[in-house]
Write a structure and sequence with these properties.
single chain; alpha/beta; 2-enoyl-CoA Hydratase, Chain A, domain 1; 14 helices
């Protein structure tokens, strides 16, 4: 069942009417194709208009939408012969970060990503995409492995931030994040990072400090988590959504290394699938040419 945001309610009502008419047509044999076509055109027009004028807070909502494809979806769509690798060789495995070796357009690559999960069970398993220190140590280990064998690194970022629990802090969360960022900047193979949803706090930077950064059209990226920032400025809550302007086009204006990957059809919500990157994947050589 599709999930609709608050500003998508008019679209949800139209799609509900379309479904009712289709069921009525199937049961009674009536030909209502013209009416269904008219409603579909109206819903598509309303969809484009809604996504063409999103507020900063609505962009955050879309970036966190539960129907978005996650890292595993993009890896499955883009990477062939994928072999997952696990563990940090020090403490244990962290399912919040997935990674492994595979082929992208016939070339061997290392793929890494933060995985949120698609349902309750998988979200708990992946800790809602919030990695612990062992996850960032695993990312470091895999990036060093890629450097040893000369493999380009592709990362898919979708996280609200690193896990802020006491156990994570006790095992050196901040140090693990800092070391992961250091590794991104230090290894001698190219890193192309794609922010596919929410890129928040150092937990995102740990995988997104690449040579080139791609962002899907309805994605956000900033050095701090919006919820934590809002908690620190509770006396100015009305300003919090306006501060959350780290959308794709804002980042593209501020950072020359950021490129926009359009994930919509004219402002609609086809970001609900991995098709934009699967059917027309960007060529990493284009973004690595200046290096």
């Amino acid at each position: 069942m599709r999930h609709f945001l608050d500003f998508e309610r008019p679209i949800a009502e139209l799609e509900g009417k379309i479904d009712e008419l289709r069921h009525l047509s199937a049961d009674s044999g009536l030909n209502i194709a013209e009416e269904v076509g008219r409603l579909e055109a109206q819903a598509e027009r309303l969809l484009r208009q809604s996504y063409a004028r999103l507020t900063p807070w609505q962009k955050v909502q879309v970036a966190r939408h539960p129907d978005r494809p996650h890292a595993s979806s993009y890896i499955a769509a883009l990477i062939t012969d994928f072999v997952p690798l696990a563990g940090d060789r020090a403490f244990g495995e962290d399912a919040a970060i997935v990674g492994g070796i595979g082929r992208f357009r016939g070339n061997s690559v290392l793929a890494l990503g933060t995985e949120k999960g698609a349902d309750t069970e998988s979200r708990v398993k992946h800790n809602f995409g919030m990695a612990r220190p062992e996850g960032y140590r695993k990312a470091r280990r895999l990036m060093r492995l890629a450097e040893r064998f000369g493999l380009p690194v592709l990362t898919f970022v979708d996280t609200a931030g690193a896990y802020p629990g006491i156990d994570a802090e006790a095992r050196g969360q901040s140090e693990a994040i800092a070391r992961a960022i250091e590794t991104c900047l230090d290894i001698r193979v190219p890193i192309v990072s794609a922010v596919i949803g929410e890129g928040g706090s150092g937990g995102a930077i740990a995988l997104a400090a690449g040579n080139s950064v791609l962002m899907l059209e309805h994605a956000i990226y900033s050095g701090s988590c919006r919820n934590r920032w809002a908690a620190h400025t509770a006396c100015r809550r009305r300003q919090s959504p306006q501060w959350a302007r780290r959308s794709t086009r804002y980042c593209a204006r501020c950072w020359r290394s950021t490129a926009i990957v359009c994930a919509t059809r004219g402002g609609g919500n086809s970001w609900r699938s991995a098709e934009p990157l699967r059917d027309n994947p960007p060529d990493p050589r284009r973004y690595l040419a200046p290096l």
